[in-house]
Amino acid sequence: MAAYAVCSFAMRFGLFFQVSESAGQTQAERFAEMFDLIVLAESLGFDVAYLAELHFGGAFSLLSSPLMVVPVIAQRTRRIRVGTAVSLLPLHHPLQIAEQAATADLLSGGRLEFGVGRGSIPTQFHGFRIASAENRARFDEALEIIRLAWTQDRFSYRGRFHEVDNLSIVPRPLQRPHPPIRVGVHSAESFAHIGDRGWPIYSGTTTTPLPQLRECMAIYRAHLASAGHAWGAEQMALMFPMHVGASGDAAREAMRPGVLQYYRNVETIFAQLPDAYGEHLPRLQGVRETLANLPYDRFCRDQAMFGDAVELVDRLQAAREEFGLSQIIGWFDQGSRLPRDEVERSMRRFAETVMPKLA
Asked: What range defines the domain where residue 317 resides?
């Protein structure tokens, strides 16, 4: 197993929000709770809050337009940065995303972290009537157009999916030359593809468990080096389902209902596709097998950071060294089954007892 030297830069700590529907709360209340938790996170010293982009299923997420939410968070906070994890570029016109993200950066005082990805959930491509087989080519083209829109006074572009003829995009981002760009990656093919291009990356253990991540990071490092790209100070951000309990056993038992609910939510979304849309069926079957016999101990070992403070410090430090992490991001209520006060207690424990040991 390869390990990489920890750089001298300070670790950054983030939170991830997916905002699924929750029994007993309205959709507006779910957003309000997220805003309150981000305000608390800022007071505790967290550096960045990441917002998912997911479509067509409140059981999984209400965050269909995260760039619209960024300025709202910025109005309620002063320091914490706000990121997308991730903006799904193949589902949008790149000029529109360039305008929206620039507006979000401007209205947030230059606090946008622009996470982007190609997406893999079939309901989203079915809903927008975009072929999922085109998602990588659409992503590459969209990201190039956005980069040109932000760095050129006027530009033109001729591609497979889009044409731009001598346009100037306004507003311009406050951050120059543009907000930090980070690409979400979860498959070996994506790690290789983005390594060739040198972009910093974001991944999550919900979709890329640690054993798979070890293999993918070796691929990313090899492609990064062979393409002549240096490893940067902000090269790798990693998201874990996170819970800090009074004891390790208490933390793991507290999160068991939420993990089960997460897989139920995934099943709900996948099962809504028409039967004729068959390419998702192997994944749906895998989710149903997981639900029938949840391998919870393996999930805790390979995908989650559920434990007491001492355990999490040890495990996160090991992950930091192994993967060269610059950001550790916690999903503090996977499945939305924890009481609000328990989520806040976990965030406080993390900030007070884990973050200082890793900073």
From this structure: 12-358
Average pLDDT over residues 171-199: 98
Radius of gyration of the chain (CA): 20
Does residue 206 lie in a domain region? yes
Report the mean per-residue pLDDT for the chain. Answer: 95
pLDDT range class, residue 75, cuts 50, 70, 90: very high
> What is d(CA 71, CA 53) in angstroms, rounded to the nearest whole number?
16
Beta carbons of 329 and 16 less than 8 angstroms apart: yes
Number of structural domains (the chain) is 1
Residue 101, pLDDT score: 98
The predicted model scores a pTM of 0.95
pLDDT at 5: 41
Long-range contacts of 213-219 (CB under 8 A, 24+ apart): 213/238, 213/323, 214/1, 214/322, 215/188, 216/185, 216/187, 216/188, 216/191, 217/191, 217/323, 218/2, 219/188, 219/191, 219/192, 219/195
**Is 6 domain-assigned?**
no
Quick check: is 330 in a domain? yes
Which 3 state secondary structure label does DSSP give 339?
Answer: coil
For residue 280, the model assigns a pLDDT of 77
Residue where the block lists tokens 């893999």: 120
Task: Tell me the CATH number at 265.
Answer: 3.20.20.30
Asked, for residue 97, whether it belongs to a domain, the answer is yes
Neighbours of 222 (CB within 10 A): 13
